[in-house]
């Protein structure tokens, strides 16, 4: 499983100082499929003109493969108990604040409110705590969600294959699993204790989910925690690895950038807008059929610009506090990270339509995949 | 007019709706481009929300909905999607689309065959999307599908008729309609398919992702019509060498 990490490491080392010429970039863009070497080279492009050129091809590939459609979803945080000590995270167990867990009735209220807002695709999130947010609890929450939404996904702690099977059998179709960083040493330092310390168990979670019958997987690093180019390269090869092994699956990729979350953690790396955009474009160029997700961590103007180029899926009207839809809450004080785009679903929909695209709320009709 | 799936249709251009920027284009295509058959992916038929209406609400009631099983990975999923689709749309036309990879999206003929066997028995009007294989096309004909839909080239590539040598035998040999589906990028590609003798074409990407989908749909409709007319008249044979328009021997003998 980790062979792609070794490959990414070797590629990165070989090409880290390689700056492709404009002519070489054009030759790469003329290809139908890029090689891994092309991918590693493009990570070092810095000229604005060349990035714009790459963006043009990325846009063409996105439209050809995904049409003029942007899928919209919203996260539902049902619990924020966490056993992990991630130094950068607002949910860290070292952080002292009121831990909450929604009752099933509250979950239903949240879903009802989300549905009223027009959301039809939900990702159920919890902190990583097997006791307070047991698999049974998640399963029940997902069951309720399938009554309201056409599509239900999860973003919870890594599960065992049998546990994924349970969720898949009730109609949960997708899993998001951020590796945070693919660099083992940094990962180890950033996660001092707690079950999340097990790098491999997390890394293999998407594969277990796909084996268990899940249909969609989203992977990616949290940019800023370790060397960004290396992490991006690893994430892209991770997505490719999953596609090769599970050619039927719909794989997505996302590069959330670190945002402060009430901790005093200062990331070792910052990723500029230019670099961030370039990373997303490169992911599209290398993997034309892979979904690309942009979260509300990014500010509205940047998200809107990206819609035109390579994004296929985005969250809208997101509340990142537990119980934030049915009840007004202080997002800054209680959220896992800072939300930059606080626009309502309607506002996001308007932007998408103005750009000549169609907002879509349904990717999988409830029941179609729970066979 | 031509008969297919128990209906008489004027237009031989079928359109997929999945990649359209705006579903309201469907009605315009029906009235302005004369398109009568719209393929709809069941996986995307969501409920009405405050922001968007269900795609089905945009399809004129006299148009034909072709339920599409895209997203299905085997015959079990395809059958279930077809059943759900029939419930949702009230249409028994189903395009069987089963792909096993998300990179090339090539249809899986084996699973498609199994699906069609089941769906024909269930009373569907079945339109299988296939990799161009004459043997499979003939088997499907035996099973009782309404038409076969071989690909022109991989989905969404706009590369046109990339496998004419495989398509031609299917057009020549099967007695049911042949609809070229996938890969057609330009109106001229569609005209070529029709000149070859295809009974219809199904287009999605080339129309939906163009700068003006309605205008492009009209362009395709005209090309399809032109190609069909030419086929019906009979396409002239190509010659390696120029031929005098009046026979040379007239002059020699004169």
UniProtKB/TrEMBL annotation, chain A:
Gene3D superfamilies: Aldolase class I. Keywords: 4Fe-4S, Iron, Iron-sulfur, Metal-binding, S-adenosyl-L-methionine. Its cofactor is [4Fe-4S] cluster. GO terms for biological process: thiamine biosynthetic process. Residues 68-289 form the Radical SAM core domain. PANTHER family: 2-IMINOACETATE SYNTHASE. This is Biotin and thiamin synthesis associated. The lineage of its organism: Bacteria, Bacillati, Bacillota, Bacillota incertae sedis, Caldicellulosiruptorales.
From TrEMBL, chain B:
CDD domains: ThiG. This is thiazole synthase. One of its GO terms (biological process) is thiamine diphosphate biosynthetic process. Pathway: Cofactor biosynthesis; thiamine diphosphate biosynthesis. Coiled coil: none annotated. Gene3D superfamilies: Aldolase class I. The keyword Iron does not apply. GO terms for molecular function: thiazole synthase activity. Keywords: Schiff base, Thiamine biosynthesis, Transferase. Catalyzes the rearrangement of 1-deoxy-D-xylulose 5-phosphate (DXP) to produce the thiazole phosphate moiety of thiamine. Sulfur is provided by the thiocarboxylate moiety of the carrier protein ThiS. In vitro, sulfur can be provided by H(2)S. The keyword Transferase applies. It comes from the Bacteria. InterPro entries: Aldolase_TIM (IPR013785), Thiazole_synthase_ThiG (IPR033983), ThiG (IPR008867). It catalyses: [ThiS sulfur-carrier protein]-C-terminal-Gly-aminoethanethioate + 2-iminoacetate + 1-deoxy-D-xylulose 5-phosphate = [ThiS sulfur-carrier protein]-C-terminal Gly-Gly + 2-[(2R,5Z)-2-carboxy-4-methylthiazol-5(2H)-ylidene]ethyl phosphate + 2 H2O + H(+). Its EC number is 2.8.1.10. Residues 3-247 form the Thiazole synthase ThiG domain.
